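It is worth pausing here to work through a concrete case rather than discussing structure prediction in the abstract. The textbook approach is simple: state the sequence, then state the predicted structure, then interpret. We follow exactly that order.
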Amino acid sequence: MDKQKFGIIGSGTLSKTFGSLLVETGVYELDVVVGRSKASAEDCIRFVGEGTGSKNISDLGNCDLILVAVPDSALGDCCKKLQQAKTTLGAKMILHFSGACSSLVFSPLVSESTLVGSLHPLRAFSEPIGSLSDFVGTNCALEGAPNSIQYMRDLVALLQGESFELDEKSKLQYHAAAVFASNYLVASLNVSKKILEDLGLGEKFYLLQGLMQSATGEVFRSSPQSALTGPIERGDYGLVREQLREISHLPGVASLYRELGLQAVDIVEEKGDLAGQEIVKIKEALS
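Step two, the predicted structure:
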């Protein structure tokens, strides 16, 4: 059976990852990578191990599948360029990887022979993944028309991932949840690192890994209510005040402590283990 040809717009980490994964399936072959420069496209080609680099979207004419891996802000412009090259394109599916933007951004490209969709892998790609074994079980959010969903569901299954469907109106809020679980988790850990560095203990930051993993593990094994420990969970409002005083000299840290502390109070209130007066005192300590 002939392999299906696919092309990629964008040449970064996600392009390298999905390029490599699709090639490894043996079902697809990479035809063209379109980058901002031919050099960046060729860098992606070298990582994947096949295909040719280009700066021109019209060179995607032989592709059955087109993957668009560009920043959200560039999707509209990318759609316009695809429209301009539409008569030369024969793609059955054009999909993007944005977690926040829906497939509607590509709606002008829909035709009787071309589907559009969005596929967002719930995984941090700080480095490209070069092997299917590393992608196994990755959850992917799919959004689009029913026939587009089926195409993407089959694609994710081929990559040995898992998939679930989203409504286009849900994407922004869904992505905000993903931001908290990934980006803001990293930001919070960076605050922990800064506090340790202020004490001259920056080299001991790695010691927090076990603490973080045990806490997040309990969240997903049970619930946030079960996982929460510490001074707010115990109702130790005096310690909360003392900690705020000790970190007050670090820019932005005390205000973040207060905001996240109030979120922790919400969890404590849901648990119902502390008396109302204790909750009031904790909130006063955080004010």
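Step three, interpretation. The longest strand covers residues 28-34. The mean pLDDT is 95.
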